[in-house]
Amino acid sequence: MQVSGRVSTLTEEYRHTPVMLKQCREHLALQSGEVYCDCTLGGAGHALIMAQGISPNGLLIGIDQDDQALEAATPRINKAFPKLAVKLFKGNFGELDSILLNAAIPGIDGILFDLGVSSKQIDDPQRGFSYATNAPLDFRMDPSTQTLTAAEVINTFTEADLTWIFRTFGEERWASRIARFVVQTREKTPIATTSEFVEIIRAAIPAQARLEGGHPAKRAFQGLRIYVNRELEMLEAGLEAAIRWLNPGGRIVVISYHSLEDTIVKRLFTKMALTCVCPPEAPVCVCGHEPVLRSISKRPLVSSDAEKTANPRSKSARLRWGIKKE
After folding, report:
1. Are residues 288 and 264 part of one domain?
2. Taking the model in full, what pTM does it have?
3. Domain range for residue 100?
4. 305 within 8 A of 254, measured Cβ to Cβ
5. In degrees rounded to 5, what are phi and psi of residue 17?
6. How far apart are CA 181 and CA 200, in angstroms?
7. Are residues 16 and 104 located together in one domain of the fold?
C-alpha cells in the first residue's frame, strides 16, 4: 500500500458512519479488477465497500486532506484486503488532476465524493467545526497547509464581506444583522472562540426566529466553514476533473449535504449530459454536440427512514450519479 503525504499520530478512534452504502454500491456498479477512487476517504467506510467489489485484482485510490483520516483508513483497508492494490494520497479533491497523475493511471472506472464534514471532524473540539462545544475559531480542514482561519475572517473582514459570506454560503436570513453584531463586538475585543461567535449570533437573531430551523448558529457556521475551505470552488474543480478521468462507461457518485453543493452537482451533470447546445431560437440542431455523460440521475436519491433514524447526519444527504458516454 502506498501513502503519499505526512500522516500524524492518531490519538483516538476515527469514528465515521458511511452514508447510503447500498445506493453507492448500486450506482458505482463495482466490478472486479477495475480502478476506483474514493475522493473523500474518511475512515474508509465507503472505500471498504469499493475494495470488496473490485478485489482481488483491482486498484483502490483514496484521497483525504485529513491526516487522522488517512491514518485510520490505512490499517482498516490493509487488514480487510491485504492483497488489493491500494494508493492513498493526502490532498484536496480540488487538486484531483495532479493527484491522479501521481497515481500513474490512465483512467478510472468509478469515483465517489462524499461531501461535507465527517463525524470525527465535527466531534473534535479543537477543529472548531461544532457550535455545540467551545473551541478556537479555526475551521480549517487541513491546518498543516491552510493559512486562513475563521478567526481571521471574523476579526478582519468588512461587514459587507461577512454579510456576503453568511448569506451566500450559509443561506442565512439574518446575515446582515450577524455581520453588524460581529463588527460591533470585535471593536471592543477580538472574537477568539466558537462560543463567543455563537453568543453573537444568538444576540443578532430575533428571539422568535431562533425557535425555527434548528440551532441558530448552524447557517453562519456553515457559511464560514465553506468560505475558509473554498469548498464550493474545490467541488467544481474536482467534479470536472473526475469526469475527465472517467473511462468510457465509468460512473461517478456524489453525496451532498446542503443545497449549494447539490445545485453545483446537478448543474454540472445536466451540462455534461446535454445533446444540443444550439441557441433556443434555432429551428433545428446544427451544433453536432456530443454529451459527455450518457445518463444521469433525474432527481437526487435520499436516505431511507431507517438510516435517518440510525444515523441522524444522513437526514440531509442527497445522492446523484452519472455514467460516462462510451
Report:
1. yes
2. 0.88
3. 2-114+231-324
4. no
5. -100, 110
6. 6
7. yes
Each residue's pLDDT tens digit, 129-170: 677 788 999 999 888 888 999 999 999 999 999 999 999 999
Cell numbers for 279, please give them: 441557441
| Number of domains comprising the chain | 2
Residues 7, 69 within the same domain: yes
Question: What angle in degrees, to the nearest 10, is found between the helix axes of 175-186 and 194-204?
Answer: 120
Together in a domain, 272 and 259: yes
Q: What is the pLDDT of residue 128?
A: 62
Same domain, 105 and 241: yes
Q: Which of 170, 115, 179, 173 is nearest to 141 (CA)?
A: 115
Q: What is the dihedral of CA 143, 147, 150, 154, to 10 degrees?
A: 160
Would you say 61 and 1 are in contact if contact means Cβ atoms under 8 Å apart? no
The beta-strand segments (E) located in 125-215 are: none
**Helices 218-229 and 159-170 sit at what angle, rounded to 10 degrees?**
100
* Residue 122 placed within a domain: no
Residue owning grid cell 457559511: 223
Residue 121 lies in a domain: no
Q: What span, in angstroms and rounded, lies between the C-alpha atoms of 86 and 36?
A: 10
Grid coordinates of 154: 471574523
